[in-house]
Amino acid sequence: MSKKILIIGSGIAGISASLKLNSYGFHSVIVDKGNFLGGRIATKELKMGKNSNFFFHGAQFFIARHPSFKKIVIDGLNNNYIKEYGNFLPSRYRGFPNMRNFLLNLSKNLNISQNNKVIHLRPKNSKISVLTDTTNEWQIFDAVISTLPAPQNLLLMQEFPILKKTLLSAKYAPCIALMFSFDKENLNIPCYFDFYKKKSILSWMAAGSNLCFWTAHTKDSYSSLNLQKNNIFLKNEILNEIKNTFYQYKDLSSINFHELHIWKYAKVKKVSEGAQIDPKLPIAIAGDFMEGSNVESAFISGEKAAELIFNRLS
């Protein structure tokens, strides 16, 4: 069917929405202001000679419970771009060799435009008019799905009061991520540390592409209180906590700081309440803020938004 549909955001919700629209015979274009697709399913690469090593500094893994997401995971396992992570119940999965490769494979047949920021949306008769920072001309689309985090989405929905009300009901917690490495791999340590129920400024630590490369995330309370602190203060506090954790393990090599990353909208603390699609216009919103704070929830939200748009256009 010949419809012009725009999806804002190249994370898992945007990719999911585009795939679902494809299944209905509707083709779409995904635009994203960033350099890379993936959103908070993020990977940092560190090259050492000819070898590439990866920090997984956003989402560490995903779980598949919903039938449509299970199909995605099974396909990725069969085609070697998803691997099971650790020995957990229920099973946890990761993109292989990194999270971004999972999304690259998932979106290989989609139309995606990076470094293209949508700066304004407005109704235009029964369609949506869109302005981006790459052109001075408004473009008309038959439908739009925006998958940005709720606070960023809110800026675009000023002329859509029902969706604006939905977005205002979502709440996020920030997170501070610290990436670090060891000089050599130590196979005597686990690949994941959970601190949620322990007295620590950390919520968890997880190995990246191997047991040399790690990411630590701070708890919501610590992140909220220290978000504006300078990087040297944060680096020292978090590294001290990391070193205290590994103190019990003997013969570990030295810990090397790599990078800090601030996730302002890291974890959904309160899911949105309200409509996912405008009551009259072909514009919808999607993301983990609509379903829950995990990769699968964002994927399902994207599918739901696509179904709502399909029904509206049909």
Describe this structure in words.
- This protein has nine helices and 17 strands.
- It has two domains: 1-37 and 107-170 and 271-314, 3-Layer(bba) Sandwich (FAD/NAD(P)-binding domain), CATH 3.50.50; 172-268, Polyamine Oxidase, Chain A, domain 2 (Alpha-Beta Complex), CATH 3.90.660.10.
- 30% of the residues lie in helices and 30% in strands.
- It is globular, with a radius of gyration of 20 Å.
- The protein has 314 residues and is α/β, with parallel strands linked by helices.
- The termini are close together.
What secondary-structure arrangement, pairings included, does this model have?
Elements: E1 5-8, H1 12-23, E2 28-31, E3 44-48, E4 51-55, H2 67-78, E5 82-85, E6 92-95, H3 99-106, E7 111-113, E8 118-124, E9 127-132, E10 139-141, E11 143-146, H4 150-156, H5 161-168, E12 171-182, E13 192-194, E14 202-207, E15 213-218, H6 220-226, H7 231-246, E16 255-270, E17 283-285, H8 288-291, H9 295-313
Helix pairs in contact: 1-9, 4-5
Largest sheet: 5 strands, parallel
Task: Please work out how many helical segments DSSP would assign.
Answer: 9
- What gross morphology would you assign? globular
User: What is the residue-mean pLDDT, rounded to a whole number?
Assistant: 93
H-E order: EHEEEHEEHEEEEEHHEEEEHHEEHH
| Percentage of residues in helical conformation | 25-40%
Lateral strand order in the biggest sheet: 7-2-1-11-17
How many separate structural domains?
2
- The radius of gyration computed from the alpha-carbon positions, rounded to a whole number of angstroms, is 20 Å
Query: How much of the sequence is in beta strands?
Result: 25-35%
CATH superfamily of the largest domain: FAD/NAD(P)-binding domain
Q: What is the terminal-to-terminal distance?
A: 10 Å
What fold name stands as the CATH topology of the largest domain? FAD/NAD(P)-binding domain
Task: Give start-end ranges of low-pLDDT stretches.
Answer: none
According to CATH, what is the class of the largest domain? Alpha Beta
Q: Look at the helices and sheets and give the structural class.
A: alpha/beta
Total number of beta strands: 17
CATH architecture of the largest domain: 3-Layer(bba) Sandwich
